[in-house]
């Protein structure tokens, strides 16, 4: 058993993959020039809807899928190409919520690290993304911050979106995230991850803010296992705002949110 564990550590240390210990919070690390990695996201959100057969409210667990191809374009510069898919739970439910922050379509993004890791007291990166889906065109920008203290890594993303809906609605979204991880071994990281989402419709602005507009924040434990060319990260997030709120059918922020992320170095 001890020999097997050492082998996993050695393989993980020699890997060319770029694992993400925190499923929501981006690190400043990027792929080397010419490297290619594929990542598969699966998100699950515990929400409520109406059962047409009983006309009663019930819990359900909708899913969202996102496939990303990451490409190292140059030193500290990375391109990401995404395909996103949110399946409809079907006609067995009514008054379903839109999956928070997800849609069916495409994404393209660039991530650039402003200096080599460790050159500055805090590693700083910038991130720009364009989204096209069935409801909107979206522009997103992130400022990526990271600091390492030995085996501890602290990361934060300051993020904002501008959404142009085909319905002529316009919306500003603030969705920062932050987390901390500890490297038990190169093959195993554990930590805490958090994220927040708050929407501000502009055309026209609503007369009052509802629960579904936020801000709503989530916090939860995260684990990442690195097997060399393959890695897997998982986190379970609990809503920590409006904890006494009685979730209604159609509202997008349930008490529990799960994200699984698998990456493979091509």
Short characterization:
The chain has a single domain, classed as Porin (Beta Barrel). It has 1 helix and 15 strands; from the N terminus they run αβββββββββββββββ. Strands 1, 4, 5, 6, 7, 8, 9, 10, 11, 12, 13, 14 and 15 form a 13-stranded antiparallel sheet that branches.
The named CATH superfamily:
monomeric porin ompg
Overall tally of domains:
1
CATH architectural name: Beta Barrel
C-alpha geometry? globular
- Regions with little confidence, pLDDT below 50 for 5+ residues: 1-15
Order of helices and strands: HEEEEEEEEEEEEEEE
Radius of gyration: 19 Å
Instruction: Please report the number of helical segments.
Output: 1
As a percent range, the share of strand residues is over 45%
Description:
- Helix content is 5%, strand content 56%.
- By secondary structure, it is mainly beta.
- The protein has one domain: monomeric porin ompg (Porin, Beta Barrel), CATH 2.40.160.40.
- Strands 1, 4, 5, 6, 7, 8, 9, 10, 11, 12, 13, 14 and 15 form a 13-stranded antiparallel sheet that branches.
- The chain is globular.
- The relative contact order is 0.21.
Question: What are the defining features of this structure?
Answer:
5% helix; disordered N terminus; 15 strands; mainly beta; Porin; 13-stranded antiparallel sheet; two-stranded antiparallel sheet; 266 residues; 1 helix
């Amino acid at each position: 058993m001890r020999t097997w564990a050492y082998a996993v550590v050695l393989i993980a240390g020699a890997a060319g993959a770029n694992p993400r210990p925190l499923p929501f919070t981006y690190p400043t690390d990027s792929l080397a020039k010419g490297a290619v990695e594929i990542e598969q996201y699966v998100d699950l959100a515990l929400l409520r809807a109406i059962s047409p057969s009983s006309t009663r409210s019930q819990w359900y667990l909708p899913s969202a899928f996102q496939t990303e191809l990451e490409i190292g374009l140059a030193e500290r510069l990375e391109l990401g190409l995404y395909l996103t898919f949110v399946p409809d739970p079907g006609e067995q439910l009514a008054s379903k919520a839109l999956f928070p922050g997800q849609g069916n379509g495409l994404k393209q993004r660039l991530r650039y690290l402003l200096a080599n890791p460790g050159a500055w007291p805090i590693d700083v990166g910038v991130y720009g993304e364009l989204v096209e889906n069935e409801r909107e065109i979206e522009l997103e920008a992130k400022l990526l911050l990271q600091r390492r203290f030995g085996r501890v890594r602290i990361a934060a993303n300051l993020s904002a979106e501008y959404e142009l809906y085909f319905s002529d609605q316009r919306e500003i979204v603030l969705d920062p995230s932050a987390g901390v991880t500890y490297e038990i071994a190169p093959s195993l990281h554990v930590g805490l991850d958090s994220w927040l989402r708050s929407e501000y419709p502009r055309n026209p602005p609503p007369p009052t803010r509802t629960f579904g507009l936020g801000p709503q924040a989530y916090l939860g434990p995260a684990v990442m296992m690195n097997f060399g060319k393959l890695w897997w990260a998982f986190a379970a997030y609990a809503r920590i705002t409006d904890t006494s709120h009685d979730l209604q059918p159609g509202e997008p922020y349930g008490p529990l949110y799960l994200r699984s992320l698998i990456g493979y170095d091509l």
